[in-house]
Design goal:
- The protein has about 140 residues and is of the alpha+beta class.
- The chain is built from three helices and seven strands; from the N terminus they run E-H-E-E-E-E-E-E-H-H.
- The chain has helices spanning about 20-30, 125-135, 135-140; strands at about 5-10, 35, 60, 70-75, 80-85, 90-100, 105-110.
- The protein has a four-stranded mixed β-sheet with strand order 1-2-4-3, with no helix packed on it. Strands 5-6-7 form a three-stranded antiparallel β-sheet, with no helix packed on it.
- It is globular and about 40 Å long.
- About 25% of the residues are buried.
């Protein structure tokens, strides 16, 4: 029997000063996938500080302004493929596919929607609706 994936999802409210704590948590709890929103990383973020032993380099989408951003770390023993599903410049979102030990394919999406967005801002909902309209196409992007 294969083990279930261990996934952690958290809002860091700025991860720069918490990288050591995140890394320790991931190692202690044998996390397979860590999804972190509101990383507040930028192009100036030290790439070397984001590499954790036993994990692939994080897939990131930075806001390139104050706040926001998403990052996803995946255990290096899992085969991943970044996906370019409905690319958008309007949302901080990362998509990836991975093969599990049981041979299943899993698609992971990490999305950050700022709390400052009004309830009337339907951009994220519209994006996800468009994604669901094209869900059959996702299979063509998966790892063969």
């Amino acid at each position: 029997m294969t083990e279930p994936l261990r996934v952690v999802v958290t809002n860091a409210a700025s991860l720069t000063n918490k990288l050591g704590e995140l890394q320790q948590f991931m190692l202690t709890h044998a996390v397979d996938i860590a999804v972190v929103t509101e990383t507040k990383f930028s192009a100036d973020t030290n790439e070397g500080s984001l590499f954790f032993p036993g994990y692939s380099p994080p897939l990131r989408r930075d806001r390139n302004a104050a706040g926001g951003g998403v990052a996803v770390w995946v255990k290096s023993s899992l085969r991943i493929q970044p996906l370019d599903i409905l690319p958008t410049d309007n949302h901080e979102i990362v998509w990836l596919a991975l093969d599990t030990a049981s041979g299943s394919k899993v698609v992971v999406g990490a999305l950050y929607r700022p709390g400052s967005c009004s309830e009337r801002d339907t951009g994220v909902v519209d994006y996800l609706d468009a994604l669901m309209d094209n869900v059959r196409d996702i299979g063509s992007h998966l790892i063969p």
